[in-house]
Design brief:
Layout: E1 2-7, E2 12-19, E3 23-31, H1 33-36, H2 44-65, E4 75-81, H3 85-102, E5 106-110, H4 111-122, E6 130-135, E7 140-147, E8 150-156, H5 162-172, H6 179-186, H7 212-227, H8 234-260, E9 264-268, H9 275-287, E10 291-293, H10 305-316
Parallel strand pairs: 1-4, 4-5, 6-9, 9-10
Antiparallel strand pairs: 1-2, 2-3, 6-7, 7-8
Length: 338
C-alpha cells in the first residue's frame, strides 16, 4: 500500500511516498533554515509563506522520485497537530484539496506519533509494545506505546522541553541557529565535568521533567561570566550542559522502564540525533540489558517519511477524515482526535 505523506508543522516542507509503513520510495524536504537563521529561530509568518510557496513542487517531486502518479497512491497522510498553526494549515489544506480532487482517503497524523514511527523505517522488525522517549524543541515525553495507534503518556516536562533548553543555551553562548545541533558540535571535545549544573526533579512526579531551572542556571552562568569579564570555554560549557540535560532524560526513562517492565527503549524526535544522548542511552541500555532503538539521523528531524509510516497504521486502524479536518497547535499524543 502506497501512501503519499505531507509534513509542514514547523520549518520543513516535506512530502514522501511510503509503502506499507516501512519502505520509503521517496522523501523530499525543502528546508527553511537559511531563511530563519538571521532571526536566531523560526519566524511563524515566514514559515507559513514559505510552505505555501514550496508545497506543490515538493509533492510533485516526491511522486516523480517514487515513479508514481496519484493513481498509484491509496491514501494521503498529513500532519495536522501539533505545531505552528499557520504552517500546519498549509499542509492540511493542500492535502484536503488533493484528497478531494483525487478521491483518495485522507488520514490525519499526529506529529509526535510520526516521530516514533520513524523507527519503523529504520528498524523493520520493531513492533510495539515499547517505551518511547520523545525529545524535541517543543516536547519531552516518556510514552508507553501499547500498539501502533495506542499511546499513554507516563512522564512529561512540566515547563520547557529538553530541546528548547539546548537551543536557549546555544543562543546565549552566541551559537547560530539551529542551536541544539550547533551546541552538540561545539561540545564534541569538551569536558562534561567542567561546569556544575543542577539535576532538577519534580516532587511527587518522579517520571516528569522540569528543565526551566536548568535553562535559567545556564543563562545566568553565561551572563555572570560576561559581567566579570571571564571567558567561557564553549566546548566545556556545552558538554557539561548537555550531559546535565541527558542525565535527567536517562534517569527518568530508566525508572519508567523498571516500573512498566518494558524491555525495549525507543528514542524519537529531533534531539534523538544528539550524540551525547545516543551514547548515554547505549550505555544505559547495555548496563540494564534493555533493547535500544533510535532513528537514522536523516529521520530524526521533521520529514514526511515518518508521517507516511504512521499514516499507514492509522489508516489500518480506520482513522480517516474529510474536508472538515482542521489543524491544531496543541494536541496530546494519547488523545489525538480531529
Amino acid at each position: 500500500m502506497k501512501i503519499l505523506a505531507i509534513e509542514s508543522s514547523c520549518d520543513e516542507t516535506a512530502a514522501a511516498v511510503v509503502e506499507d509503513g516501512r519502505t520509503v520510495l521517496s522523501s523530499i524536504i525543502a528546508s527553511q533554515v537559511d531563511a530563519h537563521i538571521v532571526y536566531g529561530g523560526v519566524v511563524p509568518e515566514i514559515a507559513s509563506r514559505m510552505h505555501a510557496e514550496a508545497i506543490s513542487n515538493v509533492v510533485k517531486q516526491a511522486l516523480e522520485k517514487a515513479e508514481c502518479t496519484m493513481n498509484d497512491i491509496e491514501a494521503i497522510a498529513v500532519t495536522y497537530a501539533p505545531g505552528l498553526i499557520g504552517a500546519l494549515l498549509i499542509g492540511v489544506n493542500f492535502a484536503k484539496g488533493l484528497s478531494f480532487s483525487s478521491g483518495k482517503p485522507l488520514v490525519p497524523v499526529h506529529h509526535l506519533r510520526s516521530h516514533i514511527a520513524a523507527n519503523y523505517i529504520t528498524h523493520l522488525n520493531l513492533e510495539p509494545p515499547f517505551l518511547a522517549l520523545v525529545v524535541s524543541g517543543g516536547h519531552s515525553h516518556i510514552v508507553n506505546v501499547k500498539s501502533y495507534t495506542e499511546f499513554e503518556i507516563i512522564g512529561k516536562t512540566l515547563d520547557d522541553a529538553a530541546g528548547e533548553c539546548m537551543d536557549k543555551a546555544a543562543r546565549a553562548l552566541g551559537l547560530p541557529y539551529p542551536g541544539g545541533l550547533n551546541l552538540d558540535k561545539a561540545a564534541k571535545d569538551g569536558n562534561p565535568k567542567a561546569y556544575n549544573f543542577p539535576r532538577p526533579k519534580v516532587d511527587g512526579c518522579e517520571l516528569d521533567f522540569s528543565f526551566s531551572g536548568l535553562k535559567t542556571s545556564a543563562v545566568n552562568a553565561i551572563h555572570n561570566a560576561k559581567q566579570k569579564g571571564e571567558e567561557i570555554n564553549i566546548a566545556d560549557f556545552g558538554a557539561s550542559y548537555i550531559h546535565a540535560v541527558v542525565r535527567c532524560l536517562t534517569a527518568n526513562t530508566l525508572k519508567a522502564a523498571q516500573q512498566t517492565g518494558a524491555q525495549k527503549i525507543v528514542l524519537a524526535g529531533g534531539v534523538s540525533a544528539n550524540s551525547v544522548l545516543r551514547r548515554e542511552f547505549e550505555k544505559l541500555c547495555k548496563e540494564n540489558e534493555l533493547e535500544l532503538y533510535f532513528p537514522a539521523l536523516g529521520l530524526c528531524g521533521d520529514n514526511a517519511a515518518m508521517v507516511g509510516a504512521q499514516g499507514y497504521f492509522e489508516y489500518l486502524s480506520g482513522k480517516k477524515a474529510g474536508l472538515e479536518l482542521n489543524a491544531y497547535a496543541t494536541m496530546p499524543i494519547d488523545n489525538a482526535v480531529f
